[in-house]
Amino acid sequence: MSSSGTNTTSSNVDAINALQHSKILFIKVWCFTMISCGFVGHTLSIYVFTRRSLYSNPCARYFLASAMIGMAVDVILVPLRLLQAGYNIDAFVSSAAICGILTWFLNSIKALPSWIIVLACADRTGPPIGMLTFGLLTIRNVRRSVRRIIPNSNLSQTQNETRQRQKATDRQLIQMMIAQFIFYTLTTTPNSVYFVYSSAIRHEYLYNLISLLELNSEF
């Protein structure tokens, strides 16, 4: 009877060890893949968005800032997480103050790219919302629109081609912004829902525990 229980316990321990080993191996492969692909991707993004034809576009500047911060995440945050989860080397245990500062700094860096995409969306959708919300801005926008409307007969062929290229660039940047917005929404929403759910469950557990302690104290 005891030997069968010992065998069962040993098999459970082996299964847990195998699962833990698989988890560590997956973390290593995933982190190295993120570092290599992220470095190449962010480098190409920085190269593209620093071109003179795109640098004057405000939306391109948002993407450039997002790529730079993403590069910082890729070369700082991901290696630290790799050392912590893959090799059991924790850089946050030297002191409580350093742990708090590093945690705040790294979490802030990790959240900045998504907030930059939010700012890019606000930059593109802000003027229409402003025109609907503030009546005074409507007159200003109409005056600007009138000044910008020039008959096609007065435009040279070079000006027409330049304007068409600018419109095509704006369309491509808006498509990139929408794609990144959808990607961030799909990847961050489950995590946010999990945190909200875990917080609700934790509060419910604490409430039940306090109620149980109060009930026991009455007896």
Automatic annotation (TrEMBL):
User: Transmembrane: present as a keyword of the record?
Assistant: yes
Q: Where are the transmembrane segments?
A: 29-50, 62-80, 173-197
Instruction: List the top taxonomic levels of the source.
Output: Eukaryota, Metazoa, Spiralia, Gnathifera, Rotifera
Keywords recorded for this protein, A-Z? Membrane, Transmembrane, Transmembrane helix
Cross-referenced Gene3D superfamilies:
Rhodopsin 7-helix transmembrane proteins
| Entry superkingdom | Eukaryota
Q: Indicate yes or no for the key word Membrane.
A: yes
Q: What name appears for this protein in its UniProt entry?
A: G-protein coupled receptors family 1 profile domain-containing protein
